[in-house]
Fold this sequence. Notes:
This protein is α/β, with parallel strands linked by helices and about 300 residues long. Helices cover about 45% and strands about 20% of the residues. The chain is built from ten helices and 14 strands. It has helices at about 5-10, 20-30, 45-60, 70-75, 100-115, 130-140, 155-165, 210-230, 235-250, 290-310, and strands spanning about 15, 40, 65-70, 80-85, 120-125, 145-150, 175, 180, 185-190, 195, 200, 255-260, 265-275, 280. The strands form four sheets. Strands 3-2-1-4-5-6 form a six-stranded parallel β-sheet, sandwiched between helices. A three-stranded antiparallel β-sheet has the order 7-10-11. Helix 3 links the parallel strand 2 and strand 3 (about 65-70). Helix 5 runs parallel beside helix 6 (about 130-140). About 45% of the residues are buried.
Amino acid sequence: MSDLAASKATGNRMAIIGAGSVGSSIAFACLMRSVVSELLINDFNEKVCEGQVLDLQDAAFVSSTKVRVGSPKECGQADIIVITAGARQRPGETRDQLVQRNEEILTSVLNGLQPIKPTAILILVANPVNILTCMAQKLSGLPPHQVIGTGTYLDSIRLRGAMKERFNVSETSVHGYVVGDHGDKQVAIWSSASIGGKPLLSFEEIKDMDLEKEADKVAHKAYKIIDLKGATSFGIAAVVTDLALCITLNKLAVIPLSTYCERFNACLSFPVSLGTRGVERIVYPDMNKEEVALVEASAEITRKACANYLQ
Length: 311
């Protein structure tokens, strides 16, 4: 029996809160990879939720995962709970401007899920993800290591994808991270990035690159997608599916996710080892003084925002 089959045999259940474009894309991606034995979908718009589930069930013949509508209480007892429910980011709107609208939605969702399964892993997808992860850690009743946000995982993938084109190597061979904020204040850690054990900054090709411009492209790619089609969905769906596999298979892969970082006294995105119990450890990459200063500035903004909404 394969690791995935063995994991599914234990009856892992995943709940997705929010059946919009992001939630349904995540559900479809998880269904295609048979990540769990049962997938529950919940949305305040019951009509849309039922429609999404019926549509997903038509695709389930290629999967061993069962899909159905789940009540908030049922979803609260899932092994993995993914919260995508939130106000959609408008064209030109920053992620931080979403805080007021999404804080109310998050509070309502978490109240509806109670009591949450003590061993559940809670994954925040809605933005601004660092601030909402901080709120969820305080409001869910779960230990902080079991509450994570998707953070800068997708941003790091975008950075590696850009380096793939520049250096003609697979993105999996590029070891580099975007950390801190998932948004305008994110920080690309160029100083310790590498390919095949060789520092990225020592490659000849790097001399022809504008690193600030490359990082800016990564930070603003989502805005371009939103301007063109209204929302991002496929990339984040692939990310959440990968996280779910890390959890169900206890892969302990090192992935940049939003979690409480004691070093900066804030919820920020940094590489963490992710497994069945959630975050096992945080790995802080080597950073130069400028990179640390940028992360600290982002942390200060996050601390203030969380203080304002958790008084």
